[in-house]
Amino acid sequence: MSTRFGLLVAGLVSAALLPAQLLTRQDSHKVSSGYAFVSPMASNHSFLITNTGEIVKQWTGSAAGAVAVKMLPNGNILRMEATSNSYFPGAVGMGGAGLLEGIDDAGRVVWTYTLSNDRYLHHYDFHVMPNGNLLLVAWERRSPDEARTAGRNPDKISPDGVWSEAVLEGKPTRPAGGEIVWEWHVWDHVVQDLDASKENFGRVAGNAAKLDINFIGSGQNPTQTANWLHINSIDYHAGRDEILLGSRLLSEIWIIPHSPDRNGDFLYRWGNPQVYRMGTPADQKLFFQHNAHWIPAGYAGEGRILVLNNGVGRGYTSADEWEPPAGYFREPEQPFGLAQPTWTVGENFGSTFLRR
C-alpha cells in the first residue's frame, strides 16, 4: 500500500476490524512488507500480524479496548480501555475510555493511569510526545448552569449540560498514575454574541481564533445529547510545539499552540468555515472526519496534514492531504485556506473505500 494509505490505516485499523477478520483480502505483489498492528475495538486483545494474516504476537488487556491502542518503539503497547462512569452516560459507545494500560513485550502490565471522574473522561485518542509525556483528549463536563453563565443558548443545553473538551499533558509515574503538567480547555477559548450580560460576549462572525459556544454541528440535537464537539484525533508537531485536533461533530481540524508563551487561541482551522460564520454549506470541505495528523518526515507529503474525510452527508469517503498556508496566513475577512486539498483519493472508489 502507499505510504499515505499506510498512515491512515495505522490510525484507524484499531476500530475497523474484528478478530475473525484480521485479513480479508490481499494483492501479494502490491502489499507492503513488514507487520501490521491491529487492535479491534470492544476487544481485550491486540495483535501483531504478518501481511499474510498470521498472528505473530498477542497482548491482552484488563478490559475491552476503546479506539486508540498504540505500539511504542520499545515494543510495549499502550491500550485505552473502557471504564464505567455515570457522569458521562453512553460514553463507551462514543469512544469513552478512562483507563490507560502499558503492556510490555512479555504481556505484563507495567503502567496504569485512570482519567475518569465527575469532571473529565479520557476518550478516543492520545499521543505520545518525544519526552515520553502523553497528550490526552478528555471530555470536560460542564453543568447546565455553567453553560448558561458562559453564554450558551439555554435552548441548546441538555439535562446533562455540555461536554466540552480538554487536552491534558500527563507525565507518567510508574507503575501507576501520572502528573498533569500542562492543560488546554476549549472553554477558555469560546465566544458568544447572544447575551451581553453573560461571559465571553464578543464578535463571533469572522473570529477564527475562538469557538462560537452556540454553534451546533449538522444533525446534532443539543437538547438531547451533551456531546458537543467530539474531538477524535490528536497529534503533536515537535518542531513547532503545536497540537493538531480534529472535531468530528463540527467537521473541523484545529491547530493550537502548546508553548506557554502563547495564549492558546486557534492558530489555524480548516474544514467548515460555517463554524466561524465565514462560509456556506458549499464551502464545507470536511465531513465528520477521523485521524487528522501531520505526515512524518520521510514519507510522501511530509509536513502536510492527512485526514480520513468520512464524507457523511456528502456521499463518499476520501483521504485528503493539504498544507496550511505559510504562517497560517488568512486574508482579512476571508476563511482559512486552502480552497482544495493538495492530494485526495476516494471519490471514484464508491462504496469499496473505508467508511466509518
Report on this model:
This protein is 6% helix and 34% strand. By secondary structure, it is mostly beta strands. The protein has helices at residues 3-16, 144-149, and strands spanning 35-38, 45-50, 55-60, 65-71, 77-82, 98-103, 109-114, 120-128, 134-142, 162-172, 178-185, 190-191, 211-212, 231-237, 242-247, 252-257, 268-270, 290-294, 305-309, 318-322, 343-345. Strand 14 and strand 15 form a beta hairpin. The longest helix is centred in the N-terminal third of the chain and has 14 residues, at 3-16. It is globular, with a radius of gyration of 20 Å.
What is the first-to-last residue Cα distance?
Answer: 20 Å
- Determine the structural class based on helices, strands and strand pairing: mainly beta
Mean pLDDT: 90
Spatial strand sequence of the major β-sheet? 4-5-6-7
Count of strand segments: 21
Radius of gyration: 20 Å
List the helices and strands and how they pair.
Layout: H1 3-16, E1 35-38, E2 45-50, E3 55-60, E4 65-71, E5 77-82, E6 98-103, E7 109-114, E8 120-128, E9 134-142, H2 144-149, E10 162-172, E11 178-185, E12 190-191, E13 211-212, E14 231-237, E15 242-247, E16 252-257, E17 268-270, E18 290-294, E19 305-309, E20 318-322, E21 343-345
Parallel strand pairs: 12-13
Antiparallel strand pairs: 1-2, 2-3, 4-5, 5-6, 6-7, 8-9, 9-10, 10-11, 14-15, 15-16, 16-17, 18-19, 19-20, 20-21
